[in-house]
Specification:
Length: 158
């Protein structure tokens, strides 16, 4: 295996572990926010959800740069990158994630945008709740699909 391929695979695996930590922290904060009716915990939930998507986006950027040879740069590059990851690139790579997962992740991308652009005291718990309720199956699907992609990289580079 080439050194760049091995490095990318190692980074994907390491970053997936870090995303798992962010998910656990977000869920813990959500439980405390609900049980103690304390919006300060909600701020932590928002920060961890933001970190979750931002971390995932970093993985996608690394794949786009190293494998695709092209990282979107347009004003809507965040949307373009997510779309790029769900597209198969003929003779280069299969889709990194499924279209189904892309559609689900769009909600997390949108929330990350909100967190970056509004004051935390304006966050609506009703909009955060579905992100938290669904995050375990999202992480499971994400982990499975990125692990499959890492296996592809390993086999393609052998």
């Amino acid at each position: 295996m080439s050194k760049p391929g091995a490095i990318l695979i190692a980074r994907i695996r390491r970053d997936l572990k870090e995303l798992t930590v962010l998910v656990e922290r977000a869920k813990l904060g959500w439980g405390k926010a609900k049980s103690q009716n304390d919006d300060n915990y909600l701020d932590g939930v928002a920060l961890n959800l933001h970190g979750f998507y931002s971390g995932l986006e970093k993985i996608f950027e690394k794949i786009a740069a190293a494998v695709d040879g092209s990282v979107p740069t347009a004003a809507n590059w965040h949307q373009e990158l997510l779309s790029q990851m769900s597209a198969e690139i003929a003779e280069v790579r299969p889709a990194v994630i499924s279209e189904e997962l892309r559609d689900i992740l769009e909600d997390y991308r949108g929330f990350r945008h909100v967190v970056r652009n509004v004051y935390t005291f304006h966050l609506n718990p009703k909009k955060i709740e579905p992100l938290i309720v669904n995050i375990d199956p999202v992480l499971e699907k994400l982990t499975a699909e990125l692990t499959t992609f890492a296996t592809f990289l390993q086999q393609a580079d052998a």
